[in-house]
Each structure stands twice: as C-alpha cells, then as structure tokens.
Fold:
Amino acid sequence: MIIRRASIDDAAAIARIHMDSWRSTYRGLVSDDFLDNLRLEDRVPRWEKRLADVDGGMFTYVAEAAPGLLVGFSQGGPEGTGNPDYTGELWSLHIAEPYQGLGLGRRLTSQVANHLYSAGHRSMLLWVLTGNHGARRFYERLGGVYVDDRVEDFAGGMIDEVAYGWADITPLL
Structure:
C-alpha cells in the first residue's frame, strides 16, 4: 500500500471514495434523500477544483492499493474555525469499506500530521459527526481529546458534530 500526495488525475477516484463512504457511514446520521442523490458527476469537478488549488493551503493524500486503485484519502490544511489552540486541521479522512481496519486511517492521519508539522503547525483539530461512533473511537485511540461541539447545517438538515484535537501532533508523526 502506497500513501502519496494526490494529483488532479485522482479527482474521480477520490470523489467515488468520498461519495461511497458518505453513503455507507452517514446512513441514519444525515438525510437518506441527501445520500441517495449524491452524484459522481457533481462530485468530480469539486475535487478537481480542490486538487488544483495549491495556493489555498489545503492538501490531499491518497492510499493506493495497486497502480491506479485508490482506496482512501485524507485532506488537511489550516484550522478553519479560528480556534486559537489548534492551528492545523484534518479536514477529511475516508477509506473504502473493504479496506477499513487495515491501518490506512492511521497512516493517512499521520501523513496529514507530518505535512502540517512541516508547514509549522504543532497542533491539529478535526470535526466528526457526533453519531459516528466508530470514527470517534478511532480518533480517541489516536490520542485525540474532546475539544468542542457544534450544530451545523449539513446535508439538508442540522447535524451535531464534535471536535477532537491534539495540542501536540508529534505522537502522530
């Protein structure tokens, strides 16, 4: 398994993983109508734009099981809420269902932490749906501690999220 920086050529595969992951993980947590109406042809241009914006501070890594077979991704960048204690953020982490539980989430999180560290960030925050208990346990096992909670307008409704943070990301490196 190779972890590498994503390129714009990876946009369609990332969009597919993202969409499929939302459908399998968020069912029952967000509107079924929202999940059922996700369309790959809408998601790909969004990812192309994200991957082309190299000046925005965001970055994406992919897990490649074989040449051209992407099975997961992580995205990070500067912390987005203005929290004074956490300067970096893990924006997204999604693994294709058949590849979950193999350590890819840990490796992709570590890659984000390494990138943030090399950019001068020493702390990291992430937001996860409150009801996503599997992800919450995963981040807690990685040493993330509860930081905050919020209610966001997302996927056609209001959802509860919880933030986990690392005041020092060096254990993740």
User: Anything to note?
Assistant: DSSP finds five helices and seven strands in the chain. The mean pLDDT is 95.
